[in-house]
Amino acid sequence: MKIHVDKLKKTFDVKTTNKVMRSVYQFQLDSAKLSSSQGKDGVGIFSDAIALIDRMEDFLVKTLGLSKQDAEKLDDFFESKDVQKMANYVAGRLLGMSDEEIKEDADNSEETDSKK
User: Fold this and answer.
1) Beta bridge partners of 11
2) Which residues lie across from 3 on neighbouring strands?
3) pTM, whole model, 2 decimals?
4) Cα(first)–Cα(last) distance of the chain, in Å?
5) CB atoms < 10 A from the CB of 105, how many?
6) How distant is the alpha carbon of residue 53 from its chain centre?
7) How far apart are CA 79 and CA 24, in angstroms?
8) Nearest 5°: CA angle at 19, between 16 and 24?
9) Cα separations (Å) of 9 from 3, 15, 27, 79, 80?
10) Tell me: the pLDDT tens digits for 36-81?
11) Exposed e or buried b for every residue in 6-29, given b needs 16+ CB within 10 A?
12) DSSP letters along 50-105, please?
């Protein structure tokens, strides 16, 4: 499957092997677990935030086969929200969503977040 990541200005050919799909589902599961900070103290919340950043970067590096240079860009060049959008976009594409569906889902998510 061809996946174009605008921020990296590259298109990647990713095969939807069991290993890749397992990684997609694990990323989604980890993200859901780590974003829920109910009942956690400050240390737990910050530990989860760091773990989520690491998980997003690791997911993109492994799934897209990023070069060392592109992997470093994730850490040094892009804002955290951009890396999160990239990871969610790649996961969505691998789960069979179209670009339009991903954009609509992201728009709905942003709208829900703004109402909180």
Assistant:
1) 4
2) 12
3) 0.84
4) 36
5) 14
6) 9
7) 22
8) 70
9) 11, 20, 23, 16, 18
10) 766 677 788 888 888 889 999 999 999 999 999 999 999 999 999 9
11) eebeeebebeeeeeeeebbeebbe
12) HHHHHHHHHHHHHHHT--HHHHHHHHHTS-HHHHHHHHHHHHHHHTT--HHHHHHH
User: What is the separation of C-alpha 112 from the centre of its chain, rounded to a whole number of angstroms?
Assistant: 19
Q: Six-digit token pair at 109?
A: 């998510």
Residue labelled with tokens 């990871």 = 87
Please count the helices (runs of H) and the strands (runs of E) in the chain.
5, 2
Q: At 90, list the tokens.
A: 């790649």
Q: In the structure encoding, which two tokens stand for residue 9, read together?
A: 């200005």
For tokens 């703004």, name the residue.
114
Q: Which two tokens stand for residue 1?
A: 């499957």
Q: For residue 7, give the nearest of 103, 77, 99, 94 by alpha carbon.
A: 77
HSE-up of residue 68 (Cα within 13 Å, Cβ side) = 0
